[in-house]
Design a protein that fits this description.
Number of domains: 1
Strand order of the largest sheet: 4-1-7-8
CATH class: Mainly Beta
Structural class: alpha+beta
Number of helices: 1
Strand content: 35-45%
CATH architecture: Sandwich
Shape: globular
Number of strands: 8
Radius of gyration: 18 Å
Helix content: 10-25%
Length: about 90
């Protein structure tokens, strides 16, 4: 393989590794559907999570996550939240 092809392959592999989106995961351990608010600063959205399911959303630059736990949590990267529908059980990456 020529040096040019080797360099091109290496550059493509590097772009794939660095181009992955950071996603925050919220796990709903309750027996009810819950609503999660996601605040990106200039945009907000509400996601519904069915009972016992998880949802993910892009949050590479940081965002606020509000849910049934009654306060917002600043998230970034690959944080994971678990909630029982009444409180936040854990938050961490």
């Amino acid at each position: 393989m020529s040096i040019v092809k080797t360099l091109a392959s290496s550059a493509a592999a590097l772009l794939l590794l660095t181009g992955s989106a950071a996603a925050v995961t919220v796990k709903n351990t309750s027996s009810n559907e819950i609503s999660i608010g996601v605040d990106f600063g200039n945009k907000e959205e509400v996601k519904k999570l069915p009972a016992g399911k998880s949802g993910t959303f892009d949050c590479k630059d940081g965002c606020g996550v509000t849910g049934p736990w009654g306060f917002s949590w600043m998230a970034k990267g690959d944080d994971t939240f678990t909630t029982d529908g009444k409180s936040m059980i854990s938050a961490g990456g």
